[in-house]
């Protein structure tokens, strides 16, 4: 059973790292949106391609009507924090139970 426990622990840590890296990518995207970035810059293109598939559905759910602020990155960050607090910790606790 220790093999299964170690496997679940490893998966939980990898998920945690992936979520943390994605969180920083979203923060970078939000910071870049405050300035007028060069749309042909490879870093800007990368940030848009990586984050837009996640931010677009959130923008559809939350209407922007007359607000000049895009709350989609904030909501995605809150979802990532929830997943890190719930999913990863649950997996680690489940692994220690084996």
Number of helices: 3
> Structurally, how many domains make up the residues?
1
Low-confidence stretches: none
Q: Per the principal axes of the C-alpha atoms, what is the gross shape?
A: elongated
Overall pLDDT: 92
**Main sheet attributes: strand count, strand direction, barrel closure:** none
Estimate what percentage of residues fall within beta strands: under 5%
Q: Give the N-to-C terminal Cα separation.
A: 6 Å
Total count of strands: 0
Share of helical residues: over 70%
| SSE ordering | HHH
Structural class: mainly alpha
Any idea what the radius of gyration is? Answer: 17 Å
What are the SSEs and their pairings?
Blueprint: H1 2-33, H2 42-61, H3 72-97
Outline the structure in words.
With 98 residues, this protein is mainly alpha-helical. The chain has one domain. The chain is 80% helix and 0% strand. It contains three helices and no strands. Helix 1 crosses helix 2, helix 1 runs antiparallel to helix 3 and helix 2 packs across helix 3. The longest helix has 32 residues.
For the structure shown, list the relevant keywords.
3 helices, 98 residues
Short description:
The protein has 98 residues and is mainly α. The chain is built from 3 helices and no strands. The chain has helices at residues 2-33, 42-61, 72-97.
């Amino acid at each position: 059973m220790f093999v299964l426990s170690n496997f679940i622990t490893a998966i939980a840590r990898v998920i945690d790292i992936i979520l943390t890296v994605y969180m920083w990518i979203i923060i970078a995207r939000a910071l870049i949106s405050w300035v007028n970035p060069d749309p042909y810059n490879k870093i800007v293109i990368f940030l848009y391609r990586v984050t837009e598939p996640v931010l677009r559905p959130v923008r559809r759910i939350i209407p922007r009507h007359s607000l000049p602020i895009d709350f989609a990155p904030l909501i995605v960050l809150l979802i990532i924090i929830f997943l890190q607090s719930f999913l990863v910790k649950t997996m680690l606790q489940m692994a220690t139970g084996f």
